[in-house]
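Chain A, query sequence.
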Amino acid sequence: MSDASAPTPALSSTRTRPHPAGRGKAEDWLDAAYHQLLEAGVDSVRVMTLAKTLALSRTSFYWGFKDREALLDALLARWDTTNTAGLLQQCERYAATVVEAMLNVFDCWLDEALFDSRFELAIRNWAAQNDAVADAVALADTARIAALTQMLVRFGQPAQLANVRARTIYLTQIGYLSMRTRESTEERIGRMAEYVEVFVGEPCQPDDLARFAARHTG
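Chain A, predicted structure.
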C-alpha cells in the first residue's frame, strides 16, 4: 500500500473468477499474511515469503489478489472489521447498569475474537511507517472513543465527563499494548473491579465480577 492510497475493503481486492484447485484460496493467502505481519512486521509480508509458507507457486497468488498492495488493503480491512467492529459491538451490547456495560467492553481485552491485541499492535507499528495506515488507525481511534463515550452517556453521565472517561478507558488499553504489559488472565480479572470503579465512577459488585470471570475462566 502506498502512502498516497487510501485503504480499500477486502472485497475489492479479490477477483471473482473461479478458483482452480491447488492454487490456494484468497483467504489462505490473507491468513498467511496475517500471521507473517504478527511475527515479523509488514515489510516481511511478501508474496514469495507467503508462497513458501503455503507451499504454493508465487503466480498462484494472483488468482486471489491483484497485487501485494491489494493484499495489504485486505489485511487492514480485516483488522478494522475485527477490532473496531468488536469494540463497537460490545459498547452497544445490552447492559442493565453502567458497570455491566463496562464489563462488556472488558470482554474485548480478554477475548481475541472480539479484539485481537497482537493484531492491533502490529497495525500500529505499521502505521508508524505508512501515512495511509496511520490515517486509518486515527479514524478507528475516533470511532472507538466515540462509541465508549456514547455508552457512558446512555447511563446518564455528562457528555464531557463521559468523553474524558472514554479516553481514559481506551488510552489505558492502548498503553497496555504499547508497553507489552504481561498479565495472566487471573491477574487482569483481579484488578477489574477497581478498574471499573475508576473508569465509570461506580463500584463493581462481587456478583458482577463473578459473572464476568465466568466468561473468561474454565
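The CA atoms of residues 10 and 78 lie 7 Å apart. The chain has nine helices and no strands.
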